[in-house]
Specification:
The complex is a heterodimer. Chain A has twelve helices and twelve strands. By secondary structure, chain A is α/β, with parallel strands linked by helices. Among the domains of chain A are: 78 residues, no CATH class; 83 residues, no CATH class. Chain B has a domain of 78 residues. Chain B contains nine helices and twelve strands. In chain B, a hairpin with a 2-residue loop joins β9 and β10. In chain B, α3 packs parallel to α5 and α5 packs parallel to α6. The chains are: A alpha/beta, B alpha/beta. Chains A and B meet through α8, α9, α10, α11 and α12 of A and α6, α7, α8 and α9 of B.
Amino acid sequence: MSAQPILEISGLKTVFRIGDREIVAVRDLSLAVATGETVALVGESGSGKSVTSLSIMGLLPRGVGRIAAGTIRLKRKTGEVVELQTIGGDTLRRVRGNDIGIVFQEPLTSLNPVFTIGEQIAEPIRIHMGKSHREALSDAIQRLEDVGIPDPHRRARQYPHELSGGMRQRATIAMALACNPTLLIADEPTTALDVTIQAQILDLLGRLQKERGMGMLFVTHNLGVVAEIADRVAVMYAGSLVETGSVARVFSHPRHPYTKGLMRSVPQLGTATLLREAGTPLPTIAGSVPSLMDLPSGCPFAPRCPYRIEACSEAYPALADAGEGQFSRCIRWQEI
Amino acid sequence: MSQEFLLEVSRLGKDFAPVAFARGPVVRAVQDVSFNIKRGEVVGLVGESGSGKTTIGRMVAQLIEPTSGSIRFEGSETTSLTRRELRSLHARVQYIFQDPFASLSPRMTIGEILAEGLDIQRVGSRSERAAKAAQALASVDLPPDAISRYPHEFSGGQRQRIGIARALTLAPELIVADEPVSALDVSIQAQIVNLLRDLQMRLGLTMLFIAHDLAVVEYVADTVIVLYLGRIMEMAPSRELYASPQHPYTRALLSAVPSPDPSRHANRQILKGDIPSPANPPSGCVFRTRCPVAIEACAGVVPPLREGTKGHFKACIRDDLG
């Protein structure tokens, strides 16, 4: 793991109260993001990937979701280290949008329809960097230019509905980067976009991350996107981190049966024709993702796992060190 | 019955007028689209938003009426049918919807959902309908007790199986599947794709398969049609289209798909700009505003869809690029 982590999550447990029950949405999650590094958090629905990012940002629904255990340490721009799970209110507001930039999936809902694009990007610059209206607005125009929006002076005066989906997502990226954060959290930022626009946004995020040396936590369900953008990957399933390591390692030698099954079940361009002509079915993972209300005992993946043995249902497996920075939450990782 | 093509679509067009009291231009959703589907063939329609793929699917299934052009089913025109004729056609062309949550009525049991089409078509007796529903359920690998349960009791993948079973009960000749897996989790997608492929082969179904996921279409379709802003850019047998795409848009589209295989990232081609609005498409070739090889002449004429090698069509005037 590289030198200085900007973000260090350790033993995170996030729970939700549903009726009179508490369900565990994220369990025993440890993860670090270093300066200049992109870490992808990948998983299907209910895997806990978005809950993890909400936990970091302090955006869990109040009264419903809470962090029950663990620490989330952030190194601020000033060098000060804060524990995000303990600070609240004012301090958290000083961190969000300032030290942490956030890009969400749906640009139309993360932009305010009644303010111009320029005003929305200028707002955090005024609040966090103490600049005047006029200075902030001219900074905002510069940010729009940084994210490749043509004619930024005109765009800054427009409202969100006047921009296309791709342009809106560029604008939310400009807003997230307004105060030069050291950490960018991107939660499914390209999922709502068409594939040719997705390619543009991935290219942009990769470039900005390198230029600025930010740490980036990139949440996605798309394995192709992970390979495209990330240095390291953390695979989540039913609230648990099941495998982590460098993208190159994990994708070429997955050490968890879920990662392996997921990789195989996605048809690949260029090879799908051969499978079809040979009449071969796509490899699948049997069954479906379990409900968090009703998780199996032991390993959460056991009921769908082709490597399952009796011991799997007896105890929750620990993260095993598979070498070279790769870890797998599977007791049979050596056989995979 | 000896028609070569089950479905013949010719010069199909669809304009959407602005809704009442709204100002705004007419949206040219589909323009001059022609293609045929042979019996037992799977044709894939791919394209990004605004490409017109869903609009074409809905016109083929007679859910909306075309503005121009013709759709012939087994040689008979379907664009000017009486209600009675339309009802009998609906039994022969069935639709699978994208969203397995929105497309099943929460107040009907699975048995009622599956038998509804049979009831409307007045097929057989009540017990025969129940038997058909049960059979359809079995063909999508759901347990028999599902028949008396409600949609909310099922997961997304199971609901999509129910949606497929519903399309099968009437033993249709053509199935229009509109993004049948894109709302599902990755690990469930492959299960549903396999099921569709298996049913298609076993029952000899003819299918129009609409999707934006190019790899899924490659696995399912025999022939692929690439759409952009309501027009066909390229049409070819699947193997050919993916191995040697001829149209600059198809090339860019294939290159834009993120791949888990890092060796494929090398020569990524990123298109500049946005997809124009279908309310105000560019003159001449609709792709020219983003095309890396556009020349002046591209603005002048709408490029005709021409056949290069056998069965491989493209709508591009740049033949000099090889």
